[in-house]
Design brief:
3% strand, 402 residues, three-stranded antiparallel sheet
């Protein structure tokens, strides 16, 4: 009984390894809000103090009439009211983030009240997690409405990040349509956080604007754009900068591969991929769907070298007489499991009276002869049930396990 409890005892720490994005994303959103409002307050403070000082000096020296002073004060009050409205919006969003964080922490804390994997509460908790993973997968694949409906039906809206992915997909779609405007707005809104991710995204967006101006023949405008937006990156991306300047001498119909690639419309797809990568890094989201990560962890406990063998089963080898119910050998999961490590087995299992065939494959003698008899081969022959090769029975060699 004690051994059964040990094998079914729940270890919450192992579950939390997969749940880091669940907590990190609200934290990153809260940090983004703090940075944005900090920048706004600092900007308005400098403007108000400068305007207040100028108005006070003008009033004391008599250089400004009373109506003008009152108008200047009203303008400052209007700016402060605008700042207040912005802070109220951020506060409302912050309250939503805090409520979501609280719900997520409660969800994870429920694990510590479940003593065993066999407990019915663990099954309920696991269903909630599975629904979360499915919503995350649907969002990443672009099925936003399906993800939203599933989250609403299961009551897990605070445990998933629909709005974050909606914004990501909107900007990604605009880039694929050939527009960098929304992506640049996103960069400005996340300027404080962009520092840790570097300036690759913004540089590539500005470079694409330069390319489009050159494509349209707007040379003067392209030069001004390069001086204002690309020149600051000359030390960071010198090769890309000088290559871009070469476009001024090469028209869009050039045959020079080095510059032809820059004019290619495929660059928009590259920009979309760079944006998604930067977006996920900023918000501590894994590049792969959480569902794939969870499946990979389970698949690695089942994977053996034969799972990706060309002789694995009848599905990959028409000459094979075996079938398999191994999930890794299935069409749906085979490719996903290709790069996961093999399972660690501390014990080996060998059939009784093992023999080795000339191709090096080992089987139990009794089972091998029984299967060969069913295949209707000539006497004195055996057939490898996996590869379909036929050998003389006399070539079988007994195997001794040491």
């Amino acid at each position: 009984m004690a051994e059964d409890f040990t094998t079914t005892k729940l270890n919450p720490e192992t579950h939390l390894l997969l749940e880091q994005p669940l907590i990190r994303l609200p934290y990153e959103l809260s940090r983004k809000n703090f940075k944005s409002i900090q920048v706004a307050v600092e900007h308005e403070r400098k403007h108000i103090l400068a305007a207040l000082k100028a108005t006070a000096n003008a009033s004391f020296t008599g250089a400004q009439a009373a109506p003008e002073t009152i108008a200047a004060i009203d303008a400052m009050i209007a700016r402060l009211k605008g700042l207040k409205r912005k802070m109220e919006l951020v506060q409302a969003e912050e309250n939503k983030i805090q409520a979501s964080s609280r719900r997520r922490l409660e969800h994870l804390n429920d694990l510590y009240g479940i003593p065993s994997l066999a407990d019915v509460k663990y099954e309920e908790w696991s269903w909630v997690r599975l629904n979360r993973l499915l919503v995350d997968y649907l969002l990443r694949m672009g099925y936003v409405e399906s993800a939203r409906t599933l989250a609403q039906e299961k009551g897990i809206e605070e445990l998933v990040d629909i709005d974050v992915f909606v914004q990501c997909h909107r900007v990604e779609a605009s880039l694929k349509r050939g527009s960098a405007a929304e992506a640049l707005v996103w960069c400005r809104e996340h300027q404080a956080l962009m520092k840790k991710a570097g300036g690759a995204l913004e540089f590539e967006l500005r470079l694409q604007q330069f390319i489009e101006q050159r494509r349209e023949g707007k040379l003067a405008e392209a030069k001004r754009h390069a001086q204002k937006y690309l020149a600051p990156y000359i030390d960071t991306y010198p090769n890309e900068f000088y290559q871009a300047m070469g476009l001024l001498a090469y028209p869009p119909n050039t045959r020079a591969e080095k510059y032809k690639a820059l004019y290619s419309q495929e660059r928009w797809e590259k920009l979309a991929a760079i944006f998604v990568k930067t977006h996920h890094e900023l918000f501590s989201l894994p590049s792969e769907p959480l569902l794939h990560i969870a499946l990979s962890a389970g698949l690695s406990a089942l994977k053996t070298p034969s799972c990706h063998s060309v002789y694995a089963s009848s599905s990959s080898n028409s000459r094979s007489s075996t079938t398999t119910v191994c999930p890794i050998c299935s069409t749906e999961l085979n490719e996903l499991a290709r790069n996961v490590p093999y399972a660690h087995h501390s014990k080996s299992f060998v059939e009784n009276d093992p023999v080795v065939l000339p191709n090096g494959r080992v089987y139990g003698r009794e089972r091998l002869l029984e299967m060969t008899a069913k295949m209707g081969l000539e006497p004195g022959q055996v057939k490898d049930p996996t590869t379909g090769e036929v050998f003389e029975a006399s070539k079988m060699k007994k195997v001794f396990i040491s």
